[in-house]
Amino acid sequence: MKIAIVTAFPPSKVTLNEYGYHLVKNFVQKEEVTELILVTDYTAEPKQLDFKNSHKVSVNECWKFNSYTNLFTIVSAIIKEKPDAVLFNLQFVKFGDKKIPAALGLLIPMILKMFGCTSVVLLHNILEQVDLTNAGFTSNKIAKKIYNFIGTQLTNCILKADAVALTITAYVSILKAKYKAQNVTLIPHGSFESPQSVSFDLPEGPKKVLAFGKFGTYKKVEILIDAVELIRQNINEPLEVVIAGTDSPNTPGYLQSVKDKYAHVEGLTFTGYVEENDVERIFKESTIVAFPYTSTTGSSGVLHQAGSYGKAVVMPDLGDLALLVKEEGYQGEFFNPSCTSSLADAIQTILEDDNYRKRIAQTNYNAACSLSMDKIVDMYLNKFEELQSKKNPQLIVGNI
Q1: Can you give the pTM of this predicted structure?
Q2: 19: part of which helix (H) or strand (E)?
C-alpha cells in the first residue's frame, strides 16, 4: 500500500508536527506499507527522518503555514503521487491562524474526494467543543456566532472525506447527532512511543514539576508557579518548575512576560521549544506533570506522553481530560483550575506520598501501553483496507 500523510513534521514548529512524526514513524514499520509520501510544510532544515525504515518515506514539501495556495499545491501533489490512500493530520488551525488560509486548507479532503482519492481525516478537535474565549479566538458574542457558523460549514466539508477519525467518543456522538454523519469513527489519540519498560523511581536531584505545551490562552503557567511558591512554605526539600514549550500562536510574547514577572523566583526554568529528540529527557527528569488548563481543545498529547514515560499528573477535572480518564484509564490528582491553593494541595499530596505517586504513574503507563501508536496505526490501516474494499469489491483485502 502506498500511503500519503498530510501533516506538519519536525523540524517544523506548526501545530501537530510531533504527532505527525510519530504517525509516520509507526506507519513505515508496517510490512503492508511499501511507500509513504510525506506531504508536509517547507522547513529550512531537512526533515527529521531518524527512525527505522525511513527509506520508505518520500518527502514532498509543498505547503506553508498561512499560505493562500496550500489547497492547490497539496491537491496537485497528491494527484501526481497517486497514493492508495491519504491520511490528514488536522485541527482547525492546521494550515494557518488567519481565517482564509485556515479555511481553504480544510477544504482539501473534499476536493480530493471529487478526484476519486481515498482519504481519511484525523480531526483532533471539533469547534462544538472549543471554548472560543479561553482558546484565544474571540469573546465577542457576534463574532462567536460567525465562528460557529463558519465552523459548521467547514465541518460539513471535512465530512465529505471517506472517513473522519475522532479521538474521543463524545466527539463521534456530537458529529453523528448534529451532522447525521455516518462516516465518523473513533480512533484514539494513542501514546507517541511504543512504551518499553520504565523506572518509576525518581532521578537524583531536586524534584521537578513539568508543564509542557503551547501556553497563553487556556494554558496559563502563573497558577503553577504560584502553587509551587505556596508548597515551598510547607516543605524543606528543593522543588523546581520547568515550563517546556512555546507561546500559543494567539498569544505571542506570553512566556516572556511571565519570565519577566517571575524573575525573582528560584528554580524556574523556561526551556523554549523542545526538539523531538529531547522530549524523553524532559519527561524522565520530571517528578510530576502538571496541566494548568482552564479549558481543553482536544485529546491531550501531553497526557499520553506522561503516561508513556510513567509519570504522575495533576490536572483539572474538566473537558477532554476528564473524558480521557474515563475512556482510556488515565489517573491523576485533580484540582480546581481557578484556585492556586487547590493546585498546590494536589501537587503536595503526590510529593508527600511516594507510593501514591508510583501508583498513579503505573496506572498511566499501563493506559499508554494499551493504546500505543503502533496499535493506532493498525486501526488506520484497517480503515484504509475497508474503504478500498468498498470501492473495489473484488479486491482481496488481505492482499492490498
Answers
A1: 0.83
A2: helix 17-27
